Amino acid sequence: MRVLAAMSGGVDSAVAAARAVEAGHEVIGVHLALSAKPGTLRTGARGCCTIEDSRDARRAADILGIPFYVWDFAERFTEEVVETFVGEYAAGRTPNPCVTCNEKIKFEALLDKAMALGFDAVATGHYARLSIVDGVPELRRAADEDKDQSYVLASLTSEQLAHALFPLGDSHKPEVRAEAERRGLAVARKPDSHDICFIPDGDTKKFLEKKLGERPGELVDAETGAVLGRHTGVHGFTVGQRKGLGIEAPAPDGRPRYVLSLEPVSGTVKVGSADRLAVTEIRGDRPIWPGERPPASPAECVVQVRAHGGTADAVAETDSAGVRIRLREPLRGVAPGQVVVLYRPDRGGDLVLGSAKIAATA
Asked: CA 20 to 30 Å from 43, out of 243, 285, 315, 359?
């Protein structure tokens, strides 16, 4: 096969490209330039998508003996990822930009271009397992549970998964680093990237305030209706948040307060005690089913609402509006805008059934 290896400049994508070469594929490496001003992105090992990363990717490609190119996706990234991120926060929702980037950049824009150029698949360094069963892609959790990235890939369609390769799915991170050392890849000991690549200092609140300005509102006790303080914009909060609320006085019961809901039109941030965060039902819209059709309804499943953690047994029912999920045990800190991923419990809880954007909770 002709394989386009997406090389971020990290150890995972470098080893994934190496394994694609070793498997006998015709491999070409490509690094995505995602910022019109790459010098403004975080520098150092904790970042990603920087000038340093493009150089690391090029050096890895040279060692592997494969052609290497840098493709400019900055405009598309800004429109699809950054502007969506800002817009979701402005609307009182909590997005996951990594999910959006995988969906809109790596497996839409990049894959579309790769297919137009005659490639058969795109290989990435994601930790997830992928197989084709009776012509239908099956996406499963990675062997390394601590590195599993099936959650951030669960929004991919069946067609996109059919042209994806995840060579690291059966490996554990220490094995990948050791292999990089053996292959002489300089990124073998490079730390993993963290945080959001387009927020240089990691200060999401400051980034959003710069984009959206101040939109003053009130912090209100959800139970009593009492005004507890003021804020500069609902975009500075997310459901489940405890720190940095700016509440002027302690609650009458002396217990901590958490963000329960955001109302962007009125600018109201409702807060309350931890027990009011419990969610027993999730409503998801725009569901995506890798198997091309929804599971039989009602379906027993295990749901996950965050990239790491936030799992519970549940029953899911589909209808024309999307999917309704009833949790068998409550989850906390479930925010509209997040993605809920459904896993099949009778396959070890690791087979992805589908995903949806969280529209509401109860």
From this structure: 243
